[in-house]
Amino acid sequence: MNNVYFKLKFLTFLDHEESEVSSGKRIAAYLIDWFLGALMTLLPLCLMWTMATGDTANMNQVSVFTLNTILGKPQALLAGLAGLLLCLWYYVYVPWKVTSGQTPGKRTMNIAIARKDGQQLTLKDLLIRQVVGLLLLEGMLLTGSTLLRDVISLASGLNFTGILSMSGMIITIVSVLMALLVPSRRMLHDYLAKTHLVPVESDREDQQI
Predict the structure, then answer these.
(1) Where, by residue number, does the polypeptide cross the bilayer (predicted)?
(2) Spatial separation of the C-alpha atoms in residues 209 and 121, rounded to whole Å
(3) 29 in a structural domain
(4) Predicted pLDDT of residue 202
(5) How many structural domains comprise the chain?
(6) pLDDT digit string (tens) for 122-171?
(7) How far is residue 135 from each of residues 19, 67, 182, measured CA to CA in Å?
(8) Distance (Å, rounded) from C-alpha 132 to C-alpha 158?
(9) Is residue 14 included in any domain, yes or no?
(10) Nearest CA-CA partner of 148 in 209, 85, 98
């Protein structure tokens, strides 16, 4: 591992400044957000499935494709788009307007997204980091990415799911390796948005919902 980093440290575009946030806190925050974000994203699909079938035991099989089979394309796409809006609410609106740079997972672990230049985090920064970086490019870290691929495939009638999944997997692996091997622990979405994670005090006023 040290030999790999020795080679990487000469890549000047990487940030080699030591992160103030431990890997454990990052992983814990991600797992909390992954779980809660998935619940939020899939809520419209599960509700529509339950109302249409009365089945609550097999909701792990729900997707826009299963909804398309029983309800038709318009309602399946409507549920998918509603799920994507809730995903954006969770990952963009909440850290922008509710808890200042923090998703619920990051708030729980007392860490926050911040700009590297010390300026106030903006909606544009969050859109670049959370939407372009996490949702669109990395594509394997959010349930919303899978839903987005499925919605595009269903709407177009073309199978984009496999192609986009493979490209997202490759980019995600590169991003994770960057976080594991470089002291700054910044991932691709952080470089795109020029952000990093910082520790915060648990009693900050702007953390109160």
Answers:
(1) 27-52, 72-92, 126-148, 160-182
(2) 18
(3) yes
(4) 60
(5) 1
(6) 999 999 999 999 999 998 889 999 999 999 999 998 887 777 888 889 99
(7) 24, 23, 23
(8) 22
(9) no
(10) 85
